[in-house]
Amino acid sequence: MGITKTDFMRGMQCRRMLWLDKHRPGLRIIPPEVQARLDAGNDFGDRAMGMFGPYEEMTVYLPGRQIPDKTAMLARTQEHLLKGTPVICEAAFSDSGNYCAVDILRKTETGYDFYEVKNAPEVREQFVRDAGFQYCILTRCGLEIGRIYIVIHGPDEMNPFVPVEVTGQAKEYRQWVDEKIRELNRIQESAQEVMVKPGWQCHNPYDCWYSGYCHDGTQTDEEA
Asked: Domains in the chain: how many in total?
């Protein structure tokens, strides 16, 4: 199947969450307030695309659906890498089926810097792990990555985008991400549901969309 950036982050929060995403997504219940935060984050990310001026966006949707066409996005990204486009947004990369789309990829004299955009007031560890996953995929694809940034929300709308460098921390995750990708691929490909006892991971770092299902009393005592 391959692991996407979203799969990775959700799987690292809870292995059962990842398995349900792949095998029983109809059990999701997304509260309205959570959906509102997701929508606000998407809007913030869209506005951040222009923080360095003109850019090219790689997003392509499947016909008649709001689902990214990964094949088309991968091809479009390669086209712009060859052209030397200075700023590429939602740049798509895949290695052995493992996939990510980078919020902002910015060309430098020696390669590329990349920026992960988060609608939050400070950098959180899960954001750095997210960037670490992307660094892993980009380097597997042969891209030379210099600096890595998390873009957080500034103090006001006069200064809405604040890049915070996390290069060292994100690159240190490289080997760990490699190991976890293999583990998470095995989990999502399993025909048997992964059983995890409800606990801290149900709300950390994000509220799980399967809480109602997982709290019905049928769980084992296995921890996340």
From this structure: 1
Paired strand residues for 93: 100
Low-confidence ranges of the chain (pLDDT < 50): 219-224
Beta bridge partners of 114: 105, 148
DSSP strands (E only) in 126-217: 145-156, 159-165
CATH code where residue 76 lies: 3.90.320
pLDDT score recorded for residue 52 = 96
Q: What pTM was estimated for this model as a whole?
A: 0.92
Is position 220 within any domain?
no
Full residue range of the structural domain in which residue 55 is found: 5-214
Report the C-alpha dihedral over residues 15, 16, 18, 22, rounded to 10 degrees: 140
Tens digit of each residue's pLDDT (9 = 90 or more) over 72-91? 999 999 999 999 999 999 99
- Write the burial class of residue 114 (CB in 10 Å: 0-12 exposed, 13-18 middle, 19+ buried): buried
What is the 8-class DSSP label of residue 201?
G
Contact 15, 84 (CB under 8 A): no
Exposed, middle or buried, 6 (CB in 10 Å: 0-12/13-18/19+)? middle
